[in-house]
């Protein structure tokens, strides 16, 4: 597989992970909000730790991965979460 094809495949996988995360989060929010990679999960969306854990558990189920607690603690933005989940999927 060429380098360009591998890069395109990785971009497609990242976009799929992003779409799943953003879609799951929109469904969990009480009202629709614009989301971006810079959206801060706690500060901008007002999610408490229980809501964050519920959301992460739903992502884990949908993507068949496990996100370690120390990785969750490092995540501040939706972009951070997408990157973390993508790395975990690639390592699986």
Overall description:
The chain has a single domain, classed as Orthogonal Bundle (Non-ribosomal Peptide Synthetase Peptidyl Carrier Protein, Chain A). It contains 4 helices and no strands. The two termini are 20 Å apart. The longest helix is centred in the N-terminal third of the chain and has 26 residues, at 3-28. It has 92 residues and is mainly α. It has helices at residues 3-28, 49-63, 69-74, 78-91. The radius of gyration is 13 Å and the shape is globular.
CATH architecture: Orthogonal Bundle
The first-level CATH class name: Mainly Alpha
| Number of separate domains | 1
What would CATH call the homologous superfamily?
Answer: ACP-like
Beta-strand proportion: under 5%
Report the major sheet: none
Secondary structure: elements and pairs:
Layout: H1 3-28, H2 49-63, H3 69-74, H4 78-91
Question: What's the quick description here?
Answer:
By secondary structure, the chain is mainly alpha-helical. The protein has four helices and no strands.
Name its key features.
92 residues, mainly alpha, Non-ribosomal Peptide Synthetase Peptidyl Carrier Protein, Chain A, 66% helix
């Amino acid at each position: 597989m060429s380098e360009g094809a591998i890069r395109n495949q990785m971009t497609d996988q990242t976009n799929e992970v992003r779409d799943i995360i953003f879609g799951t989060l929109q469904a969990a929010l009480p009202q629709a909000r614009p989301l971006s990679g810079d959206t801060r999960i706690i500060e901008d969306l007002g999610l408490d730790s229980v809501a964050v854990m519920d959301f992460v558990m739903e992502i884990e189920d949908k993507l068949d991965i496990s996100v370690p607690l120390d990785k969750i603690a490092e995540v501040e933005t939706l972009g951070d979460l997408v990157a973390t989940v993508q790395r975990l999927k690639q390592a699986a």
